[in-house]
Amino acid sequence: MLSFTPSISFMKTFVFHPIISHATPFWLHLCYFLVVSLSGYIALKVTNPRTTNINGNNTTTKLYNLDLYFTSVSATTNSSMATLEMEVFSNTQLIFMTFLMLVGGEVFTSMLGLHLRSKTLKKIDNNSIEDDDDDDDTIKCYNKCTKYLGYVVLGYLIIIHTLGSTLVTLYMIMTPSAHNVLKSKGLVLNTFSIFTIVSTFSSCGYLPTNENMIIFRRNPGLLLIVLPFVFLGNTLYPPMLRVFIWVLERFTKRTEFSYMLNHNKEIGYCHLFSSKECWCITATVIAFLGLQVVVFVGMEWRSGVMEGMNSYQKFVGSLFQSANTRHAGEYIVDLSLVSSAVLVLFTLMMFLPPYTSFIPISHEQEDAPQTIIRIKKQKKMRENILFSQLSYLVIFVIVICITERKSLTDDPLNFNVLNIVFEVISAYGNVGLSTGYSCKRQLNTDEHCEDKMYGFCGRWSSAGKCVLILVMFFGRLKRFNLHGGKAWKML
């Protein structure tokens, strides 16, 4: 029997390793998301959608290629922009989407970066010059810490997802009203629990139900269980990671964990911050959450948005809705009914990066420190021609207004600039919140119009959807252009 080991070794040594070691982080991430989203599209395409029973007959919803690819990109970039109702997907397709959300999440991709860097450093360590003992010791120490940090992040992922899915499963079993929802919709309990936690932790916002969390808004217990996971994989990931490492250092007494805590900049992991920075991020998250809750409660407490909910349910729902604007995207109310003032505030919250704080924080990229691996010169020319993030968003909005110009004229109550801006910012922030579309708001009533429980972009033209796909990719990779536009001087 022939052995393929030499061939695999040759490919790793002479093909993949040179490409990975010389490619910039931006291109590595872009290629990764393109490959994963394409693979997800193929998986969704070859599997059958869910069959629905109408008058005793099984019917299958036709899923178009663009909508399937749109969904795959949305799940991979953790955007949860929807052009299809979630209940058209079969249990197998939901499992595939769970995988896409997991491997596309920021915590997971950063963990892959750590393991990749550890492999690269190991090779450098093996080929290091023995004459320079100090540099050799530094590389070995850095290599070991990077390797350990990769395992720490992996452990964090496993613990969080196991705990979260277990809690959701137990709640659904013990709460008849919540369990009956799954039963009436034909959803598998374990799939629902894992899907929900993976989606929430990765800040995606998809749920297997058409109504998202609206159908569970009278179940504050479920909302409170899911709420912490909105922060654990997103805005509060750096503080929680630091706490996790601190606990490991106290129990194991290993110097590697101590080194991580005291030399976070040298480690070069973009989510590992100093204690002071973590406190600033935490304070900012709490302040923004408090601001949103106050405004949302003040504007919507007595409105029809939360009709049928008691005071406790309204408060928990307000807390949950406000937390999801950065950047999980789950919702318990119909956002088309929310006041414009709240929508503008939500738009600002979706635009802000997850680690925004009152004290400017310098984010290191996932490359190893310059003093250990190599000195990289800044390409000033490339930075000078870049626009700011806001400039690109304005361009995207203008292009979409052009592609949807007919609808803007014929259906102005649904297709207005505020709704388009909200949708674009939501896609850019990889949030997934949407004002939706309502046949009742049509000025020229279409008797064939049927309300669907998916996002506003589901009513856009194919060209508009393609532009929004670019926005989702741009938003997922926006940290590589945080310094864009600095050459422009407003005098």
Automatic annotation (TrEMBL):
Residue runs in coiled coils: none
PANTHER family in the record: HIGH-AFFINITY POTASSIUM TRANSPORT PROTEIN-RELATED, POTASSIUM TRANSPORT PROTEIN DDB_G0292412-RELATED
Membrane topology field: Multi-pass membrane protein
Family, similarity comment: Belongs to the TrkH potassium transport family. HKT (TC 2.A.38.3) subfamily.
Primary localisation category: membrane
Location relative to the cell: Membrane
Underlying gene: LOC110800823
Name the UniProt record assigns to this protein: Cation transporter HKT13
Membrane spanning stretches: 26-44, 94-114, 148-174, 186-207, 219-237, 281-299, 331-352, 385-403, 415-433, 453-474
Keywords, comma-separated and alphabetical: Ion transport, Membrane, Transmembrane, Transmembrane helix, Transport
